[in-house]
Design goal:
- The protein is an alpha+beta fold.
- The protein contains 2 helices and 11 strands; from the N terminus they run βββββββββαββα.
- The strands form 2 sheets. Strands 1, 4, 5, 6, 7, 10 and 11 form a 7-stranded mixed beta sheet that branches.
- A hairpin with a 5-residue loop joins β10 and β11.
- It starts with 8 loop residues before the first strand and ends with a helix.
């Protein structure tokens, strides 16, 4: 039986670069967005099928964020944490904003310096999906585009500073979701084509009967 960990997904998307500042009390503050709303990004592509995804502005309403941690590439040491007040999360009109104080540990201070120097400048987040909706359309090149909108995030596990375009967890998560959505879309297209074929045959029969009556 699948566990909640089996359903965990990871996303690293293009958001504004992380910003750093040193507060008057010496706190090393990092701010940025783990994700943004209503900004579709390509999740997966296979031949003439493209899976895109976006996060709904209400997706974090009621989400369990009681013990979210900040990591690097979703693994290793914890740099900040909601429970001890070093990590704050806020859903605003733009996206999920994070504010972390990295001055509490030596490795946290090192990460702060890396972000400040521009070596690490993006965010990713680990979560589970409680609800979603899907639409299908064609783009200008004739590709089938499946748009997955995440409307409800069940639990947020972590936000992570990342330097690479994608880590293994992100790629595996995207491929798993993309493969499933593409398979569903292909079945729907085949069913629609079959229905159209049958309707065409019925119309031919009816037209032949009309000609016969004349």
């Amino acid at each position: 039986m699948p566990t909640i960990l089996d359903r965990r997904e990871y996303r690293r998307i293009e958001t504004e670069a992380l910003e750093t500042r040193t507060a008057e009390d010496g706190a090393m503050i990092v701010e940025g967005y783990a994700t943004t709303y209503n900004q579709p990004y390509t999740l997966f592509r296979e031949k003439d099928m493209i899976v895109r995804e976006q996060v709904d502005p209400c997706a974090f309403d009621g989400t369990d964020m009681t013990d979210v941690i900040m990591q690097y590439d979703h693994e290793g040491r914890v740099f900040a944490r909601v429970k001890n007040g070093t990590l704050e999360l806020e859903s605003d009109e733009h996206g999920l904003k994070i504010r972390a104080n990295l001055g509490g540990t030596e490795i946290g201070r090192q990460l702060f310096e890396e972000i400040q120097g521009g070596y690490t400048n993006k965010m990713s987040f680990g979560f589970t999906v409680a609800d979603q909706k899907r639409t299908r359309s064609k783009d200008a090149e004739g590709n089938t585009v499946v748009l997955r909108t995440i409307t409800k995030i069940g639990k947020l596990f972590d936000v992570s500073a990342v330097s690479l375009p994608a880590n293994d967890a992100t790629e595996i998560s995207a491929r798993s979701i993309g493969d499933g959505l593409i398979a569903e879309a292909r079945k729907e297209i085949q069913a629609e084509e079959e229905r159209a074929r049958k309707i065409g045959e019925i119309r031919k029969i009816l037209k032949g009967e009309e000609n016969h009556d004349e």
